[in-house]
Input
Amino acid sequence: MDEKILEIENLAVEYRTDDGVVKAVNGLDLTLEKGGTLGLVGETGAGKTTTALSIMRLLPDPQGVITSGSIKFAGQDILSLSKGELRKMRGQHISMVFQDPMTSLNPILTVGDQIAEAIRLHEKISRAEAAVRAQSMLERVGIPPNRYSEYPHQFSGGMKQRVVIAIALACNPQLLIADEPTTALDVTIQAQVLALMNKLKNDFETSMIIITHDLGVVAEMCDRVAILYCGEIVEYGSLEDIFDHPEHPYTKGLFSSIPDLDTRASRLTPIPGLAPDPSRLPKGCKFANRCSMKRPECVKTDPPVVNLDDLHRVKCLLAQGKDAEQHATLG
Amino acid sequence: MLPLVETKGLKKHFRVPDGWLHAVDGIDISIGEGMTLGIVGESGCGKSTLGRLLLQLLEPTDGVIRFQQKDVSSPNKAQLKELRKDMQMIFQDPYSSLNPRMTVAEIISEPMRRYHLYKGAALRDRVTTLMNTVGLEQRLENSYPHELDGGRRQRIGIARALALEPKFIVCDEPVSALDVSIQAQILNLMMDLQEEYGLTYMFITHDLSVVKHISDDIAVMYLGQLVEQSPADRLFEEPRHPYSKALLSAIPRPKIRVERQRIILKEEISSPINPTPGCRFAPRCIYAVDECRTSNQELVEVDSGHFVACHRVNEI
Amino acid sequence: MQSKQTDRSRKNYSLWLSAWKRLKKSRMAMFGLALFAIICLGAIFADVIAPYPYDFQNLDETFQFPNANHWFGTDSVGRDIFSRILYGGRVSLQIGLVSVLISVTLGGSLGAIAGFYGGKTDNLIMRTLDILLAIPAILLAITIVTALGPGMFNLMLAIGVSSVPSFARIVRASILSVKEQEFVEAARLSGCNDAHIIFSHLVPNIMAPIIVQITLSMALAILSASSLSFIGLGIQPPIPEWGAMLSAGRAYIRNYSHIVLFPGLAIMATILSLNLLGDGLRDALDPRLKN
Output
């Protein structure tokens, strides 16, 4: 069995706002093996970013509250770390790349200095040494090192995102969380950045969590996929499990919502309706109101998580029979 | 078939501190009645400017715009008001395109109130009809946009665009800000409306799978110019311009085990400010020769309905 | 972030209502609002509350310290200070209100036009206002009052004009920040003309900064009015005005400090209440702080 870098058990997160309690994450279980790349897929409000922020312990204070569960990083319980230990962990062991490269860089510092500063924050080395390291980081993300002293506004969007990635990887973290890293970029630039991330992942042996709504990005980058809906993982499995044998009606709906480039369908098959209000979640299956396969039981009880095999698991009542079938054929 | 909308040599240059930004630089398009022309390009290629030129939200620097065979390039106030009834827009951002201080009914009824088309009960009925048409529940008529989700807000924008019964609608990235499952709902709605009312669309987007799905013809734009124009299926089967090839190869596909050759473009920065003669794509193009850097190539028909602007189209 | 996307149609409240909800949470703002309300009520119902007419001189009871008959004492000619402060509030609040009204209409329109049209129009308007801004507001007001002569209306006009540039700036900046939004283009496509776009679409969206500026400017206007009256250019006796009362009492400050204390406190309380309210409003109306 591979070593586990991240283990999340039964995580629940709430946002307490003036308008009520928003249940953003509801009992999420997730593990990531060392060197693996996990895609967290879901739509707005599914809890993807909240999960990432919980791992980084960067939830907005005081609204965001972890109400239950545990997050273990390399065997260590993140939720019990002190402020100082957290600071050390962020950047050095876990890094994050955000969606918008424009806002994650400081406009009044040169890009080189920003990378060097990130290194010096975690390692006791001299300015000169840090500068050398920063230059080599620039080179590794495909930016000529002679652009060290340029400012972010002199860079294009794709170059800025490369700098952000260089900062994130500067201290060689074990885990990189990328929140929609290419959503703000053009398609051709996205292709470059994704290729770069794939290369760096191998070079640095970094484990990665990629948060995205784009199944195309997942297909390219990930080996494990978790589909989120209303703060729950409705389906989890290997890339092949999810793309070849999607089981959950929501996963299937996502695939049929995307226009296929290879065939020309006159109409798409969207998922009807809307996701429920996270401050008033229904009792049974949270997807039931949009599900075409809904049964009367679905609205009454929260569906169980069914293990289809070692990896592939689905949170759906309809999958229950398949579990038994599969075991029968295996037996 | 006669074109509903047509442009010839349409240009829009903006004054910027460093000189002139050639946002739209000599565009010829023609859209037949009831058809959809997709305009594809990356950020800064001038596709939104093109849409705004057609709708007279911007004044062209040069060139001709024809609507129903009439030259409408520089209309006077009265002509413009008449013209606007026939041309509307669906905007990208369902948050900023709706006035946050107005209710749903006020937003949808505004065009009709400005044109004094309906009054009192008739206006209310018309708003209800429009809301039904785009799939908005009637109970929402007194809600404010900020109380609604992105999909519903985009439906409000569509209802507003339909209010004056236009013939032509410019859709500027109408689904880019929406979640995939909602995207599909809105795309279906737009296609249904086109069929029902015989609408003509210009569909501006950077999302190639969406544009293929909805368009009859697709024009690929690069730094203010068209590099390729073709029937939608044809473009995806056999892109001819090196930029179109790179663009299509770069789309992340939601499929696994698909072998494909991806063309990775090197340089990212090329600027539409004070462009020099020659193909705009040449600095990034792997096939570029000296000729490409010195002289510009017009669109040439390589196949019926398939136009490409490339010196070396027959060699590559 | 999460709640933005949510269907909240059942709770059908407007933006103003949610701003009020946030305002209620700020204790300082609510204190300011309450204090200001008390001052306003005192001024409005001065006829009912005041124990004496404001110009009633009782030469037998001059220089009285605060007592049961005269809560705030009496002045050098035996007038009841409490009554005069109540009536003085009317004058101050009127000046504050009217002068701010003048500056918000004038400055607001100029700023809106400058921001909306930009280019040469913008340059012409804003550079002219810059010249006005280069003269200290109080000096400008003094000049205007000296030219037109003292008196209530001239005072209002002087104070109003002197804060036109600051309103113009705020309105212009706010217009610039909203005019690029797509709903403005949508309004144009709907057949709206410029005036309609400015006043029906843009102005309602920039009310928040204007309201904040109104409260803060009112405080400033009241203070300027008092200063001008203090140097004799404002309200003329016997009409009670806080600044004029201060001025009249300053000769007796050593022995009868209550004569200046209470008008001073009245000015302070009014300014404080308006500033607290203004700060609170800024926080409550600022959409960036909305959760």
Notes: Chain A touches chain B through 46 residues (CB under 8 Å). The radius of gyration of chain A is 21 Å. Residues 327-331 of chain A have pLDDT under 50 and may be disordered. The first helix of chain A runs from residue 48 to 56.
